[in-house]
Amino acid sequence: MAMNVRCGIGYDVHRLVEGRKLILGGVEIAHLRGLEGHSDADVLCHAIADALLGAIGAGDIGQHFPNTDESIRGINSIDILKHVSELLAEKKARVLNIDATIIAEEPKIAPHVSAMRKNIASAIDGSESEVSIKATTNEKLGPIGRSEGIAAMAVASVEVVGRDRRARRKGD
């Protein structure tokens, strides 16, 4: 059996609205507004989920958790990551690393990064050293720069145990 390294990329953005909690990386952050969405709208977890799903060729978060499914309204995005972790295990894949960036004018993200890393690592059955989370602003440009929303992007690398690609091509 050979080890194949694969990577995926994810992106998510949600509008900030009044009357919602702000959840990022499974952490509730005190803020006047929260993110609008069918789930808890945790853009960080959603971007990471899409990156991991992409790395194993398993579609995207919308296929697994459609916003038309009322039974999952308000779902905790850490639970989404746990489900993705189960899919990784089924495909005999393990996370090598996740590198994610949150794009927001406010609130300050840095004080919450450690808790976010811990939550995400736990959800994917990994270690905090495999999860990198950074934050930046949009320099007051566009909707995110006007504090109308928050976005996140992520890249994930996974190792998949499987037959050697060359052997498959040769018909072995």
Walk me through what this model shows.
The protein has six helices and seven strands, in the order E-E-E-E-H-H-H-E-H-E-H-E-H. The chain is α+β, with helices and mostly antiparallel strands and 172 residues long. The protein has one domain (2-170): 60s Ribosomal Protein L30, Chain: A, CATH 3.30.1330.50. Strands 4-1-7-5-6 form a five-stranded mixed sheet. Strands 2-3 form a two-stranded antiparallel ribbon. Strand 5 (93-103), helix 4 (113-123) and strand 6 form a beta-alpha-beta unit. The longest helix has 14 residues, at 77-90. The chain starts with a strand and ends with a helix.
Q: What is the count of structural domains? A: 1
CATH class: Alpha Beta
Q: What is the average per-residue confidence, as pLDDT, rounded to a whole number?
A: 93
Tell me the strand percentage band. 25-35%
Radius of gyration: 17 Å
Assembly annotation: single chain
Enter the CATH topology name.
60s Ribosomal Protein L30, Chain: A
Can you summarize the main beta sheet? 5 strands, mixed
Number of DSSP strand runs = 7
- The CATH architecture comes to 2-Layer Sandwich
Total DSSP helices = 6
Spell out the helices and strands N to C: EEEEHHHEHEHEH
Helix content: 25-40%
Largest sheet strand order:
4-1-7-5-6
Spatial separation of the terminal alpha carbons: 12 Å
The secondary-structure class comes to alpha+beta
CATH superfamily: 2-C-methyl-D-erythritol 2,4-cyclodiphosphate synthase
The dominant shape is: globular
Low-confidence stretches: none
